[in-house]
Amino acid sequence: MKNKFSYHEVLKKAALALLAIFILALALWAQKDQPPAKAEYKIPPEDAARVNSVKPTAESLAKGKKMYGIDCLMCHGKDGDGKGDMGGDYKNIPDFTNPDALKNRTDGELFYVTRKGKGEMPPEDNRAKDDDIWNMVNYVRAFAKK
Asked: Could you give the CA distance from residue 99 to residue 121 in angstroms, rounded to a whole number?
């Protein structure tokens, strides 16, 4: 019986198969290092429409300042300019002293982001009462008025 394939043809096909496996493995390896696609951040319309139930009185601002000092100052800065001790470690920290930074944001949106977190900003979650967060919203809004 005579062999249909020569030794060189078999070797050539084996080399092509190994090359194809190598390329596939390389492509799969490159994909594993890709960051996952970021989900779009959407605030539910009913949350964005929430109205601040706490008036921005001197008492509210004092309470908001206290909470801000505990939870926000390290990143957002003492003056709300985004230049806190840890602020440089993160991207896109808003400058609350700039009136344009929050002009298109409702109080409900600020409440939602504070409660739920956003990106690298951790959520306040259930650690704070609603009124505490509304006080912080009032305090953050006051940065642009100084």
From this structure: 21
Q: pTM for this structure?
A: 0.71
Q: What pLDDT, on the 0 to 100 scale, is given for residue 32?
A: 66
pLDDT digit string, tens, across residues 25-71: 777 766 666 565 555 679 999 999 999 999 999 999 999 999 999 99
CA 50 – CA 107 distance, rounded (Å): 7
Would you kindly state where each structural domain of the chain is located, as residue ranges? 1-34, 45-143
Q: What angle do CA 129, 121, 96 make, to 5 degrees?
A: 85
Report the candidate in 60, 95, 57, 61 with the shortest Cα–Cα distance to residue 76: 95
Give residue 31's pLDDT.
67
Find the distance separating the first CA and the last CA of the chain, reported in whole Å. Answer: 96
Q: Which CATH architecture has domain 45-143?
A: Orthogonal Bundle (1.10)
